[in-house]
Structure formats: C-alpha cells, structure tokens
Amino acid sequence: MAGRISRQFIDDLLARADIVDIVDSRVPLKKAGKNYQACCPFHNEKSPSFTVSQDKQFYHCFGCGEHGSAISFLMEFDRLDFVDAVEELANHCGIEVVREENNATPAEQRRQQQVYQQKQDDYELMNQISRFYQQQLKVSADKEIAVSYLKGRGLSGEVVKRFGIGYISDAWDGMMKAYSRNGQANQQLVELGMAIQGDKSRPYDRFRGRIMFPIRDKRGRVIGFGGRVLGDEKPKYLNSPETRVYHKGQELYGLYEAKQANKNLKRLVVVEGYMDVVALAQHGVDYAVASLGTATTTEQLQTMFRTVKEVICCYDGDRAGRDAAWRAMENALPLIRDGFSLRFVFVPDGEDPDSLIRKQGQQAFEKILDEAMPLSKFLFEQLMNKVDMSSSEGRAGFVESFKPLLAKLPDSVLKDGIINDVANNFGTGSEQFLTKFRKTVTNTGMIKKPKVSTKVTPVRLAIALLLEHPHIVKSLGDISALQPLTIPGVDLLTQLLVLCQQNPNIKTAQLLEYFRDTEQGKQLAKLMCWQHHIEAEAAQDVFLDSIEKLLNNFVEQRAEFLLQKARTGQMSQQEKQELQAILNA
Fold this sequence. Notes:
This protein is α+β, with helices and mostly antiparallel strands and 585 residues long. The chain folds into five domains: 4-100, DNA Primase, Chain A (Alpha-Beta Complex); 117-246, Alpha-Beta Complex (DNA primase DNAg catalytic core, N-terminal domain); 255-380, Dna Topoisomerase Vi A Subunit, Chain: A, domain 2; 386-444, no CATH class; 458-584, DNAb Helicase, Chain A. It has 24 helices and 18 strands. A five-stranded antiparallel β-sheet has the order 2-3-4-5-6. Helix 19 packs parallel to helix 20, helix 19 packs antiparallel against helix 23 and helix 23 packs across helix 24 (573-584). The longest helix is centred in the N-terminal third of the chain and has 34 residues, at 106-139. It starts with a strand and ends with a helix.
C-alpha cells in the first residue's frame, strides 16, 4: 500500500459513479420529480421518506436522518469500512484504486501501512489455507474416507467445488506444516483461529480430521471455517473463533454463494448447519444460508432483509428448534415492515433439511417452504402454549404478553392485523378495548426524538445553499473580503468557497467527502439536511444576500469599534481614514 487513497481519486470516483445506480441495485427506487424515493432501508416506515438526488449525488432520509454519498451508502448498507467501500465502488465503476503518500508522520504512516497490510495478509493467508484444504481432498493419504463421506451425503463434485469444500486429516499439525514458517507466521495462524497455542512453544491445528467449509464474507473473501467430523465424535461441528477478520454474529454462511447463483434473489431460507446449506444447493434450492452456530442475530437479519423481502427460518421441530425460531423472531420484529415477511418451517422429528430434500426432492421441499407458517401464526401459537386459555386469567395474561412484542413491531398492516385479532378473539371485542389496547401498545414502544431546530443565520444559510448548489460560487467573484470576518462559521464557509472555486464542477457528495470524519463534517451534514425551504431558483440570490449581510454586519461592527476609539481619542490616522470611508459609503 503506497499510502492513503488519493483525494483526487475519491473526487473522480464520486464524479464517475451514479448514486442512483448504487442505491437502486440494493433498494429499488421510484422517480419522484427530480429525485428518487424509496422506503428507508435504515429504519422502518410505511411511506417513503428516503430520497436520492442524482444532481447532488447524495441521499437523505427525512425520517431517521441517515444521509451521505455513494461511499457512505455502501458503508452503511453493506456494512463496509471506508476503504472497502471505496474499493467496492471502484470495482463497480471498473477502475483501480489510486493511493498516494500521505502527510501523516512517519510513525503514523508505518502504523497505517501495518494495519492495511495485516488485513491483506490475513485475507490472503485464509484464502491459501482454503485452497490447501481443497487440495487435501484430492491428495491426502486418507482422501477416500472424505470423498466417500461427501458422496454418501449426495454431494457432487460441482457443488463441492462451488462451496470450496475441503478436508484436513487427523494429523496433529497437517496445516501447520504447510504454513508455519516462523514464529510470526505461527502467531498469525493463532490469531486467525487456525491454530491453538499449546503448552509447548509450537502451536497445533485447531481443525483435524474434518470436512472443511470455508466461510466467505460479502466480497467472497475467506474469513473463517467450519469443520465437520466424519463420524460421531464430539463436537460434531467446530467453528472458527472470533478474530479480527471474522465476526460470526455479522456473517452468514452461504450468502455469498447464494448471491453468485442468483442475480435476483427473491427469498432466503435459514437453516442450522453448513451441510444443510450445501445439500439444499445440491438439489436446486440454492438460496439457503446458515447462522454460524449462533441464534440468528439482528445484524444477520438486517443483512438478509437488505438482500431479499422474504426470509424463511427452517428449524427442527423440537424445543431447541422452536426456541431458536423465537429468538430469531424477537430479533426480527423491529425490521418487519409492509412488503417484508418472516416465516417458519419446522421439520419432522428425526429429519433435517438435508435429509428431507434428499428423500422428497426439490419440488416437494419448496412446496413446504411455500406453505411456511406466517410470523403472526407462530406468535399466536407460542404465546397460547404458555398460558391456560380456558381461564379468564390466562386469556388476560395472553393479551398482556403481546404488548412488549407488538411494541417492537413498526407500524404496518401486519401490526394492525395482529392488534385486531388479539382484541377481537381474546379481548372483549369492543371498540373501547381495541382503542385502549392499541394505545397501550403504541405508548410502550414510543421513543420520542428531541426536536432540534437550526437557528437561521447568514453563515448557516450561505453554507447550506452552497452545499446544495456548489455552482453558485461563480456568482460571487473575489472572496478575500470575507477573510477579516471573525464571525463563527466564516472559516468553514471560506474553506468551502475555495474548494468550489478550485473545482468548478464539484458535486455535493464530493464537497462533503473532503470533511469526512471531522467535526466540521458533522456540522456540514446537519446543514445539508436542514430544511430551509429556499427553492433552487432562488438559491443564488439568497446566497448572495447572505454574503452581503455578513459583510454589512462586519462593517457595522467595525464602524462601532472605530467610533468607540474616536470617543476616547485613541484613533490612528489610518483608522480615521477607514472610519471616514465607512461613513461615506
């Protein structure tokens, strides 16, 4: 890495990219006048308040306040860091990222270089190990055992290759022999969860005698592994621990492969194990994912609902499976809005998705998915099983148990339907009860946002208009008259004016990018989202008027200062001439 990403490159990238294309590929947009709209992907709402401006190359949600450029959108929606978001956008535009030496101190440059290089080395090493495991499936002395196991599970060579499935023999250090070159390499393998530091100085393989499933991130990079034993040893599945590149609560096994197989994914089915995902893909259901040994987390559900509108949880029908479904449902409730659905399938005792699809085939299995239990039905069934519905006390407890759950659910047709069902079937059925129940649910989940008003000042108005319409700087001419001003915010305004004059074709997104991760950037973001109600046609006149007010305020303050000095007889000859010029103007 030569250094930080070139500022000129970021400007060029934002000029080349179209934020409408980037957002629309993830959140379908509809034309609304000059702009585009959608329901916000970052919070739940009934009517669209998420606006994307092609002119400004900027998005903003009037509901939750999320906003930014194409880079910001990729960071928030795809959960990428800044560098990865820039690289993703560059890849979308078909260009290489340009880096430059930065102005950081040598020590800071070394640290930045080390962090970046460490990350690249980690990804490269994990990819190499994945290829090593795949190769071992072909050349290992006991490869026939592994191959027979995979064939016995009905997997073809094609699907094994698609998922990068490999094998590692039961040797103590089979992988370490290939990759532990020195102490530093050993330490990296330990930190990446591929080796365990033993009592003696030499670490040993974490995974031994297992079929190996590489876990890929959204960009297809190997970040961890799951290993399954060939027999009945315990643990049956062994997973990578949390590392600096792998955070299991944020990733989904099989999502990358599902996206590669389906350019227009419509739904995802969540299963419990790696083998379930692969077996379903083998039989044509190539849109399954697994939650990596944890209860399905809010982050994982957010990722799924940002990818598809329908998620089906397919779990065992036993107590553990229903508990897992309940936890998934609780995490999903705040994310469910109209047009999105979470449904449930519980496989019969003694079966799992793998065995079920092998016995019944793709068509029968997908019919089961099509008939999956809706969230509302699952919710009713689970709560009814916890109380005695034959007693008034039980029914009252049942109604009460709905309140905290419905409070999590955003306003939607689904929520209204559940409230009506509870009131009509388990309450008194009266309008009075329905109104009271609805009010209680609403108040329970209500979070009041403080209203923040932005005081109108010439500086703030000038900055806000300049951010929205950078081209209006052309009407200003010389800005040197602003330099003596000591009014708060003028320094920032001057910086913006200089940037706009130096880059006549600069867009809003490019302008804001200069101030990313700074206190000034936060101030600019607030002003960018400020609803000042100045129409575009009047922006230039109001902007010039604001600048004139600033200068007039300065002149008035200067005149008052000089008059005060005159009263005390402390004026210099130069100050007398300045005062005379002001008074005669």
